[in-house]
Specification:
- This protein is of the alpha/beta class.
- It has two domains: 3-208, ANL, N-terminal domain (Rossmann fold), CATH 3.40.50; 298-403, ANL, C-terminal domain (GMP Synthetase, Chain A, domain 3, 2-Layer Sandwich).
- Helices cover 29% and strands 29% of the residues.
- The chain has helices at 11-23, 65-79, 93-104, 118-125, 145-155, 159-167, 180-189, 309-316, 345-348, 353-367, 393-403; strands spanning 3-6, 28-31, 45-51, 59-64, 83-86, 110-111, 131-132, 135-136, 139-143, 170-173, 193-199, 204-208, 211-212, 217-221, 224-228, 235-236, 267-269, 275-286, 289-295, 299-302, 305-308, 326-332, 336-344, 376-380.
- Strands 6-5-9-10-11-12-13 form a seven-stranded mixed sheet, with helices on both faces. The chain has a five-stranded mixed sheet with strand order 1-2-3-4-16. Strands 14, 15, 17, 18 and 19 form a five-stranded antiparallel sheet that branches.
- Strand 14 and strand 15 form a beta hairpin.
């Protein structure tokens, strides 16, 4: 099956190619780092998304027609059907799924062109009003937390932006953890938010507000979140070590397929034939609701003690003015490794730098212990981000290490 690479991030070009790929009438669509992609892929592939991710490690994820469609139908089953506004890059899975949901529902998506601004978002949102049989068609959109924060800040002074936020039946927010303070602000403003959890490997969000979508199974194995179901990607293109594409044959003297649980594959089969994906995220279920506690591998060893940077970051973001801060690890002569808070100067100047660092250190000490306290607060004009809107943690870490 041929693969049609699409350079750049033109959402209309991606929509055109996606329509043919999703319906099987055209070649598969290749997005991101297109020079790395081969000319052919396995049958049934709709899209191959290649991204460096926040850690800088490239992966080419094979998304089939079946998994993308299953995800779109499961989303509609959970939050309803309607018209979608694309406000994210279409070359990343969250933006791609806005287009997929529109095609599956046979509706033309509204597309926010150019750079994201609250004014442009409001203008696009407020032109989406339509009705069928005298009933208003519900509208939906998908955002990352940084976009939602910008909209809320602007809505404090612009009634049109506030009306736009309130106009959506549901706003999906994912890509990274949504700070509790931002969620509270959104709900107080009258926005209807659904926090989503997922990845490119799960065709985007597969857990909404801690509850898996229809057909999706989630379990915790050795503290790691693992996902199964029809939304799972086909695997990684050209990476056999991380992908087990078919159930392994029964081993001698056994009655089922060998489990991939002990190997390196991100996708693997249980002995009963159930296919799972290792997310690399740490989590647990509380009263039936999935709680994510960060990346299993986002850990430093400081003074011989393991410290989860995700957990430190979550606590730091509870400090006023640091709700979008990023915590990274750098080498430290005394402790081996240490954590550093990096925040936008515009947000952090609400109070003095010293006061905010002291408050953050005190909050971390109270919840984790003195060994986990960040050593510094570094203010920057703007946090480096990936095109998806997520913090570019590797770029931030390198910049801080250079300063140190």
């Amino acid at each position: 099956m041929n693969l049609e690479p699409v350079a750049g991030d033109d959402p209309r070009e991606i929509l055109r190619a996606l329509r043919g790929a999703l319906h099987g009438a055209g070649p598969a669509l290749g997005l991101g780092m297109v020079d790395r992609l081969p000319s052919e892929v396995q049958p049934g592939t709709a899209v191959v998304v290649t991204t460096s991710g926040s850690t800088g490690v490239p992966k080419s994820v094979v998304l089939t027609r079946d998994c993308l469609t299953a995800s779109a139908l499961a989303t509609a089953d959970r939050i309803g059907d309607g018209a979608w506004l694309l406000a994210l890059p279409a070359s990343y899975v969250a933006g791609l799924q806005v287009l997929v949901r529109s095609l599956v529902a046979d509706r033309e998506p509204a597309i926010l062109s150019g750079a994201f601004t609250p004014q442009a978002f409001a203008a696009a949102a407020l032109t989406m009003t339509s009705s069928v049989g005298g009933e208003r068609v519900p509208t939906y959109t998908s955002l990352v937390p940084a976009q939602l924060s910008k909209l809320l800040d602007a809505a404090d002074h612009d009634p049109h932006i506030l009306a736009a936020l309130r106009s959506f039946e549901r706003i999906l927010v994912g890509g990274q953890a949504l700070p509790a303070a931002t969620l509270e602000r959104a709900e107080a403003a009258g926005a209807r938010i659904a926090r989503t959890y997922g990845s490119t490997e799960t065709s985007g969000g597969c857990v909404y507000d801690g509850v898996p979508l229809r057909g999706v199974q989630v379990r915790i194995a050795r503290g790691e979140v693992q996902v199964s179901g029809p939304t799972l990607a086909g695997g990684y293109l050209g990476d056999r070590e991380l992908t087990v594409p078919t159930p392994p044959p029964p081993a001698a003297g056994t009655s089922g397929g060998a489990s991939g649980r002990g190997g390196p594959a991100a996708f693997f089969f249980d002995p009963d034939g159930t296919r799972w994906y290792r997310t690399g995220d740490a989590g647990l279920f509380e009263d039936g609701v999935l709680r994510i506690h960060g990346r299993i591998d986002n850990v430093i060893v400081s003074g011989g003690v393991n410290i989860s940077l995700d957990r430190v970051e979550r606590i730091v973001r509870s400090v006023p003015g640091l709700d979008s801060a990023v915590v990274v690890g750098i080498p430290d002569e005394r402790w081996g490794e240490a954590s550093v808070i990096v925040a936008s100067r515009g947000e952090a100047l609400r109070r003095s730098e010293a006061v905010q660092l002291d408050e953050a250190r005190a909050a971390v000490q109270a919840e984790i212990g003195s060994h986990a306290r960040p050593t510094r607060l570094v203010l920057v004009d703007e946090l480096a981000t990936l095109p998806s809107g997520k913090p570019d943690r590797e770029a931030i870490r390198r910049a801080v290490a250079a300063l140190h």
